[in-house]
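re: that chain from earlier
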Amino acid sequence: MAALAAEPTPPPGFQAIFNGRDLEGWHGLNPHVVTKLTGEKKETALQKMRAEFAQHWRVENGELVNIGTGPYATTDASFGDVELLIEYKTVAKADSGIYLRGNPQIQIWDIHQPDDVKKPDRHPRLGSGGLFNNTPKTPGRDPLVLADKPFGEWNSFRIRQIGDLTWVWLNDKLVVDRAKMENFWDKTLPFPASGPIMLQTHGGEIRWRNIFLRQITPAEASKILAEKK
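^ sequence. v structure.
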């Protein structure tokens, strides 16, 4: 049963896309599974993920909580150009991320994990917020600065997505500056024009709260893109 909590109050111009009470507006989906399927098998998998969603995700004290298993929390709605505010708190050895337009991802690391010689392009010690699924060594793939707070403290993301360009602030520090997010599903195709926001499950408990979004108009997008980097 969802714990009772006051509905989060968004800043001016933003809307709450998680109501702090229940899972309304969200469903379960693992795109890495369904993209490999077609026809009846795909439809069966989609239905199964929706049915399992509430077994892996719960609402507790106004927080959206997952223990690291099950399908990803996925918005029913699709979005294009947006500014997203979201807070998270995780545990040791956890690995999570935020998918924009259904595309991975703004990475969340346990920064205390050592580098793995078998995975030379994986650097948790550099911090969260990078576009981990981009080509290694490209702009934005790793964060500009280490901005993570210690375990047990809430971290705050501000994310701006315009077209295929991404800006990420973690705890008020700019960690990705106008970097192109690649289309993970097919790097030969343009970045999707719209899609859901997805919260990844992978490796350990993660808690989310105060999930606010505002849609960026074409006029505002043009103004931002005209600014010098």
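The chain has one domain: 15-226.
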